[in-house]
Amino acid sequence: MESRSDQNEGSSSPGGTLLSPAMDRNPSPPPRAAGDETTGDVDAIGDTVYSKHWLFSTLTRLIQMVTKHSEGNSEGQMELSDDDEEDLCRVWDMAMDKDVAGFLQEFKATDILLGVIAKSCCPRLTEICVGILGNIACFPDTCLTLSQNEDLGAVLLLLLGDTDPPTILETSRLLLTCISQKDVCSLWLQRLRQQTSVRSNLFFIMCSSTNTDLLEKVGELLDKLFDLDEELMKSWITAQQSEVEPEDKEDKEEKEGGPGRPHVALCLLEAARQLRSESPNGLEVYLHALQLLTTVDEGIQTFAARDGPGKAVWDFVCDVVCEDLCLPSDLPVVLQEQKSILVQAFAVLQALYRCQDQWRSRSDTSLTLIGTVLRVLQYHSEAKKGAKDEQLQTLAEITAEFLAEICIQIPKDTVADLVKKGYLTEKTALTAASSLVVRFNTSFQHLQSMLSEADPQMADVVRKQFPA
């Protein structure tokens, strides 16, 4: 499956709203000094009404301000005046314009901003500078030039370990923007592989942050990384165990109640829990990242481990599906509005279902979950009579595969309970049979055999419709 962050990142504004580079309206231009009118277009940046002179003076003032604070050996954080912050936020807004971004690049703004970031003792100033760079990076040509700055690349990766959430948010957005540009993607992936602190910093954020915007962006970044670089994903899956020395491992686990370092799956799970009620989009991103882990042997081995994260992930995703998404009263609405989340959820559940036999305590597949699978397939069988919906079709295919996994060994008592609870009716039984009979005949035959014992009358109805 493709990453949830396939599109290049949009620009951001000082208020935190992501915007497209192709805006309907540019931000208000900075004020021109008296007499600027006489210079006409000479002072304008490209085809804009923005003033070169004003931009020069603002960046020059920024350099002087940071240098003065640095040389003065001032202790504590530097404070931005309201006027300085307002002007710098204007530059941040202006950088959303392609002409301005190009001009800033020509003016060596990347080096200037890098120098400011390196000397900054003001979290807000660092955030603004990274935000400006993030907007500059939204355009391929300027992103290429920016990305070739090795010093900037190193500093940005280190900023993922900053203590200021807004700065980390803008840094994550900038990195996501860069790895989404095909001309520089490989360069950034190489840096990310080499800088091992990236992994630990992202894991720490996912495990400890309660900032919804930050968790969303970090999730998008990690999801994109895993989608682009399978080898990097594998190395992050296996890194935790290799980093715990054999003689220390038992002591660490005894003291901490688990592995000495958090596993990537548990970090993803913790972030997903945090976003469960706050951000459907963020939840979807983390479910997709978990699904990506199941596409490689290293991930499956981790989920299948006796005391691994598999059961915890299974229980969480089951709760999301059964308690949040697929309530009987609003299933048609959910399937239309949140079918993309369900695609990720059922893909994860299908993969984890095969791992359950190896867990210390197996999770019985709940009747509610099986009933939800049957209702999703029932809804699709009725909805496909209308206009074709490719995403709904994908959901139906994944759900059918999951049902096949369940039915291949489903016991008679479970089938009887499904009938008793009203989950398995003649209607849903026929839908299940229709979904299984061609592609998953072994599962169909076993379900039919168990149904013959649990409810012979319903089994006859299915047999007449789908004779052996």
Topology, number of strands = 2
Work out the helix count. Answer: 25
**Class per helix and strand makeup:** mainly alpha
The Cα radius of gyration reads 27 Å
Helix content: 55-70%
Mean pLDDT: 86
Widest β-sheet, arrangement of strands: 1-2
**Major β-sheet annotation:** 2 strands, antiparallel
Order of helices and strands: EEHHHHHHHHHHHHHHHHHHHHHHHHH
Gross morphology is elongated
Q: What is the CA-CA span between the terminal residues?
A: 35 Å
Strand content: under 5%
Taking pLDDT < 50 over at least 5 consecutive residues as the criterion, the unreliable ranges are 1-8, 17-39, 243-260
What does the model show?
Helix 4 (about 110-120) runs antiparallel to helix 5, helix 8 (about 165-180) packs parallel to helix 11 (about 210-230) and helix 22 crosses helix 24 (about 440-455). The longest helix is centred in the first third of the chain and has 20 residues, at about 50-70. About 40% of the residues are buried. The radius of gyration is 27 Å and the shape is elongated. It starts with 10 loop residues before the first strand and ends with a helix. Mean pLDDT is about 85; it is low at about 1-10, about 15-40 and about 245-260. It has 25 helices and two strands. Strands 1-2 form a two-stranded antiparallel ribbon. The chain is an all-alpha fold and about 475 residues long.
